[in-house]
């Protein structure tokens, strides 16, 4: 503001007074820059300010106006009593208190009572404010508020309030966000219909820090349009885009200059999926792409669309922004691409419609919905992005290991934690119907397998422990049984030996003693009988010697013929043939056929009969060759002892042959038949026949 001071000459006092007055006047009329005023409010200093600038928007019905200087813009309440009211383009001086109202910095009369500040219109040669172009993301980051900006977007919807003089509200989508534009004028509904889905160039005040109800939560910013001249439709430029040939999709597409409408792309494709007022996915001849659009029309899979949009290379993935869609015709809904075992980049394009089948892996997230992973047969995993329509009941039905089929849009998840686990793909179902549970998990879950392995380990431990204890008990019982058997066998052996001594050796010794007594009396009474008595007594003593030798051999041998008659008899013949003497005899043994099962006592009696026959042949028949044959048959068992001695008359009693009676007694005891054949000087043949059926019957009984 220019400052006027009258001139005074030739008076230093007057000059001093003029300087003091000028300083006082400057202090009272000094202006704050809008940027300094905002900084003072942020620092919490004295918030009373006086700013000067050009009005960029003013509406008495809304009670909001904006003034802007070279450093920024700020809002104030224009509803003062002063007339005429300032309008857009006027230069004003605004004095008042800085405060925040609905999230926006404003100049009001009082910090608590609000009210309009002091507003004075001024004549000034200030240059007109030129609008600044901002992307909405950048404006939000820079906290732009109250500046006149130039914005290009597409009109999506217009709301006309029922109350007169209330500005219309137009929803405008831009490549970088979604804004609400307040239009302080009214037009007919027919004209409004021509605005829908048409590009528009807007010169308006941008507000990014407002709060509801001034700025809805789903909007990125608010535009206050000063008048019709700041609202320019660009429909011809959009028509020119649709006249071009469809573009070829590729990740190398650069970001277009969004301030120029002719930089839009034209793509043609068939809808594979859509979400109203958010996005659609198109399958084109060169790939699939996602188009972000707030268009209110409903598109179904199978619709063929032409879309004018801005390309955006988003981390290597091509995305189309702020699409304007026009429907051409209707075709059959496209079939999803079948994912067999893994995602192959050569076959599957991002944002294409795919179908995959695999097993579920659920990851529980603290405080949120579970994360559902799908493991394909090839081992690759992908994320199923269906948390937006997943109910709590459906969440509870998700079980690890279930087989699930998912149809949806293929994308790349942005979660770095998933990429660390090798999950680089995600499938976004279009609805609950795209998710089908084929079959439940296998009964053998991980926890059940672990439980089964634990039980099997426990059972194996118990089985091994039981087996070891049982083996120890069996060994202990075997030792006990062997000791009992040893004692029993020893007892039976003692009884047998005592019985043998009593039946043979003792009787023969008694007979020998009797012969000696007879010999004593015959010395005087019958001297002629002395030689025969002496021979009989000597024969008895020799027989006692043989019996004693048999008993000693039985004690030294194992089993005494009870377990294997043939082996025992063969061993005894070998021992008998090896006894010292002049020209030992030839003893032969032969076994024919299979030996039948015989009890121990029968084996022992047969062994004694054979031993007695061999001893008789060697002692009395002067035999040089003795043959012993054991023959087994299904119905009988036989023993043959044959020698080449001088023989004897088996029908007569012979002095000194005391073993014959013992042999017959032993044969009778086991139920066998004993036959002797002895021609003079042609040897002796003894045959013992034992019916095996009778023996076996006795054994069974």
UniProtKB/TrEMBL annotation:
SUPFAM superfamilies cross-referenced by the UniProt entry:
ATPase domain of HSP90 chaperone/DNA topoisomerase II/histidine kinase
As given in the record, the signal peptide range reads 1-27
Keyword Nucleotide-binding included in the entry's annotation? yes
Its UniProt entry gives the catalysed reaction(s) as: ATP + protein L-histidine = ADP + protein N-phospho-L-histidine
UniProt xrefs under Pfam families: HATPase_c, HisKA_3
Give any Gene Ontology cellular component. Answer: membrane
What keywords were assigned to this record? ATP-binding, Kinase, Nucleotide-binding, Phosphoprotein, Signal, Transferase, Two-component regulatory system
Which CDD domains does this one have? HATPase_UhpB-NarQ-NarX-like
Q: Which Gene3D superfamilies match?
A: 1.20.5.1930, Histidine kinase-like ATPase, C-terminal domain
An example of a GO molecular function for this protein is: ATP binding
Residues forming the Histidine kinase/HSP90-like ATPase domain are 601-694
EC number of this enzyme: 2.7.13.3
Record's superkingdom? Bacteria
Q: What is this protein called?
A: histidine kinase
Originating organism: Brevifollis gellanilyticus
